[in-house]
């Protein structure tokens, strides 16, 4: 009987401690949520989250990515899949990076390959984010005769995602205009901590 009482007493203490822990956990959870709502979610964080379900996205791995359309459809958003894998084009003046001049780096939204620097971007009036130069190791080119036009398609060198087209009516020093889809790009600010990982 005494033993039972001791055990019972111990059980009560353990129970009390567990309850305390549970309330502490609840308080931490509430505080965390409050902190979250106090600060606006920056673009980079949103992008890292959107890349979370894509195991092939890496800003450090440069090995070629070759996947079936079936796999791409599973890991990319429908909008990105349409542009990257079906050579779609986003509507002009609607893209996130069209009117955007933050300092940082642009990566392929499908695989994380480095494509452009913010210093290579210029304010174009065409309605899509435009660059006068690309990372030579980041992009590849292909002749595109679709829609009754002769154009040069720009693709990601690592995963062959469609990015946009390049024209020869850009500004100095190159005279080139890389006309890109915002959806195909992922911007990471210069001082983003995720770059150090
Ligand atoms: Zn890519």
TrEMBL record:
Gene3D superfamilies: Peptide methionine sulfoxide reductase. The chain crosses the membrane at residues 12-31. GO terms for cellular component: cytoplasm. GO terms for biological process: protein repair; response to oxidative stress. Keywords: Membrane, Metal-binding, Oxidoreductase, Transmembrane, Transmembrane helix, Zinc. InterPro entries: Met_Sox_Rdtase_MsrB, Met_Sox_Rdtase_MsrB_dom, Mss4-like_sf. The keyword DNA-binding does not apply. It catalyses: L-methionyl-[protein] + [thioredoxin]-disulfide + H2O = L-methionyl-(R)-S-oxide-[protein] + [thioredoxin]-dithiol. It comes from Bergeyella porcorum. Belongs to the MsrB Met sulfoxide reductase family. This is peptide-methionine (R)-S-oxide reductase. Its EC number is 1.8.4.12. Residues 69-190 form the MsrB domain. It holds the Pfam family SelR. Its cofactor is Zn(2+).
């Amino acid at each position: 009987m005494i033993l039972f009482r001791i055990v019972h007493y111990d059980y009560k203490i353990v129970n009390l401690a567990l309850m305390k822990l549970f309330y502490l956990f609840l308080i931490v959870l509430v505080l965390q949520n409050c902190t979250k709502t106090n600060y606006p979610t920056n673009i980079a964080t949103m992008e890292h989250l959107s890349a979370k379900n894509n195991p092939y996205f890496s800003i450090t791995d440069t090995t070629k990515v070759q996947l079936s359309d079936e796999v791409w459809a599973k890991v990319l958003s429908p909008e990105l899949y349409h542009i990257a894998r079906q050579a779609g084009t986003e509507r002009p003046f609607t893209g996130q990076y069209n009117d955007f001049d933050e300092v940082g780096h642009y990566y392929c939204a499908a695989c994380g390959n480095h494509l452009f620097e913010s210093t290579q971007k210029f304010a174009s009036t065409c309605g899509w984010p435009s660059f006068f130069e690309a990372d030579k190791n980041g992009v590849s080119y292909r002749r595109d005769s679709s829609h009754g036009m002769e154009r040069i398609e720009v693709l990601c060198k690592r995963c062959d995602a469609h990015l946009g087209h390049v024209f020869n009516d850009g500004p100095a020093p190159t005279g080139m205009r890389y006309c890109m889809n915002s959806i195909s790009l992922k911007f990471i600010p210069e001082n983003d901590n995720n770059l150090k990982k």
